[in-house]
Amino acid sequence: MAVTDFIVAIELGSSKITGIAGKKNSDGSIYVLACASEDSSSFIRKGVIYNLNKTAQSLTSIINKLEGKLGATIAKVYVGIGGQSLRTVKNTVVRHLEGENTISEELVAEINDENIQVPLIDLDILDVAPQEYRIGNNFQIDPVGVLSNHIEGRFLNIIARDSVKKNLEKCFAQANIEVADYFISPIVTADVVLSDTEKRSGCALVDLGADTTTVSVYKNNILRHLTVLPIGGNSITRDICNLQIEESEAEQLKKQYGSAVNEPEAEGESPKTVELNDKRVIEEKILNDIIEARTEEIVANIWNQIQVSGYETQLLAGIILTGGGANLKNIEEVIRKKTKIEKIKIVRSVLQGVKACEPDMIKSDATYNTVLGLMFAGEDNCCKPEEVKPVNSLLEDAEEEGGAAVTLDEAERKLREEDRKQREEEKRLRKEQLEEEKRRKKEEKKNKKSWFDKVKESGTNALGTLFDDEDK
Fold first, then answer.
1. 8 A C-beta contact, residue 63 and residue 175
2. Which of 296, 246, 237, 306 is nearest to 276 (CA)?
3. Please, which of 16, 75, 87, 346 could form a disulfide with 227 given CB 3.0 to 4.6 Å?
4. At what angle do helices 185-193 and 369-377 cross, to 10 degrees?
5. Calpha distance 381→77 (Å, rounded)
6. What is the mean pLDDT of the chain?
């Protein structure tokens, strides 16, 4: 039976595009009905789209996969905005009043409007994180009704290059996918991994991604600072590649043997080694020296941004880590050493809880927190309602065809039969699309042969011919 009530969210990350569809439960958890992903490393860098065609193709593929699993048509999706140009800037709007006056809603609205009219070159204000209003020496979250002759509105504008959202809109339009709403990815992530107590006490949320690292600072339940650093887990992987190792193998070594802290070996103990795919052997110490050096650089940049926020001494809830990079062994020790903050916490799953229709559909490794946050933020049903022909219309069609009088029961039965056939046809078409995509990928993989393989397939005479020509 097809599902007709669900929310669809899509996250465009530097390593993969992830799409999930699910329902919100009454207990606040999410029940995931379908999940699909596509590798995006060849067309998204630092969280920013640079090949629109490939992105649109991947989005179409994800929607087809989700629809195939749901047995329903997706009408719209919720999308996250991130990337290296995303950051916050402070702005202040001051109004001096004539004499003591009660601050009205209209005045506050005018101040808010003036804030978003700040001229920015090649940048867009994507959202405004509400701050406080200063009245005299006091700070108010809601100043309406307060008596004063002066008000100072303080704002934290979330900005990014204007091309970020434009490229997203172009890709979804090209893929013929309607967007229900755009959300700021770091904010929805914080909403599902941070508790109200942590936001109130003060904390820094660090999302360690593939190509980027996002730092968000909260205090008194208010976002105080946000920035995206153009450095992440792939930076470590590429450093390991300097050992003349393929990137895929370097990533595997990092996950299996890597540690952010190179632990000293016991006296008299022989060095631990790792055997590579080409049968070479390297010491774990050499591998972890590389990982430790790059990790320290990433942590130094994170700490610098926390200091820039001005709240480094007010983080009572400490530093909270999430994202795929948070799975690196001993990374919290590097952060403690650099920041002198003892309270370090790793969050690998959302607070509200997630259930899925299939085991292991959603891994608890912190890589799904953002896309789940997008789903929690979504409100509207994303299922496209099927067009059902009214019973009266069926009766009229039968009369026009000159048939005998059709009863209401017969018309309803015919309606159900047509509806069933339509669903079966849609299911057949989706299946054919998926099979065609599999065949295409298989053919592409088959055709990816080296020059030597192609020559080898042509027979030894081909090689001989090459050398004979050279001799001549």
1. yes
2. 246
3. 87
4. 90
5. 9
6. 87
Please give the structure tokens belonging to residue 2. Answer: 């097809």
Report the distance separating Cα 109 and Cα 213, nearest Å: 34
Dist. CA 357–CA 360, nearest whole Å:
9
pLDDT tens digits, one per residue of 375-392: 999 999 999 887 655 556
Q: What is the DSSP letter of 276?
A: -
Give me the pLDDT at residue 137, please: 84
Tokens linked to 305: 């941004």
What SS3 state is found at 156?
A: strand
Q: Quick check: 208 and 198 in contact, CB under 8 A?
A: no
Q: How far is residue 370's CA from residue 362's CA, in Å, rounded to a whole number?
A: 12
- Mean pLDDT across the stretch 52-73? 95
Strand 203-208 to strand 319-322: parallel, antiparallel, or no bridges (unpaired)?
parallel
Residue 24, strand partner residues: 30
The answer to whether 15 touches 210, Cβ cutoff 8 Å, is: yes
- What one-character-per-residue DSSP string does 51-105 give? -HHHHHHHHHHHHHHHHHHHTS-B-EEEEEE--TT-EEEEEEEEEEEEEEEEPPH
Q: Round to whole Å and give the CA distance between 325 and 258.
A: 12
Rounded to 5°, angle at Cα 52 from 46 and 55 = 75
DSSP 325: G
Structure tokens at 144: 């309406």
DSSP 3-state assignment of 371?
helix
**In whole angstroms, how far apart are CA 77 and each of 6, 17, 162, 350?**
10, 13, 21, 20
Taking the C-alpha atoms of residue 330 and residue 327, their distance in angstroms, rounded to an integer, is 9
Cα 108 to chain centroid distance, Å, stands at: 34
Produce one character per residue of 437-448: b if its CB has 16 or more CB atoms within 10 Å, e if not. eeeeeeeeeeee
Q: What are 95's strand-pairing partners?
A: 151
In Å, how far are 296, 325, 360 from 14, measured between CA atoms? 22, 13, 22
Whether the Cβ atoms of residue 269 and residue 218 lie closer than 8 Å to each other = no
Q: Which two tokens stand for residue 390?
A: 């009214």
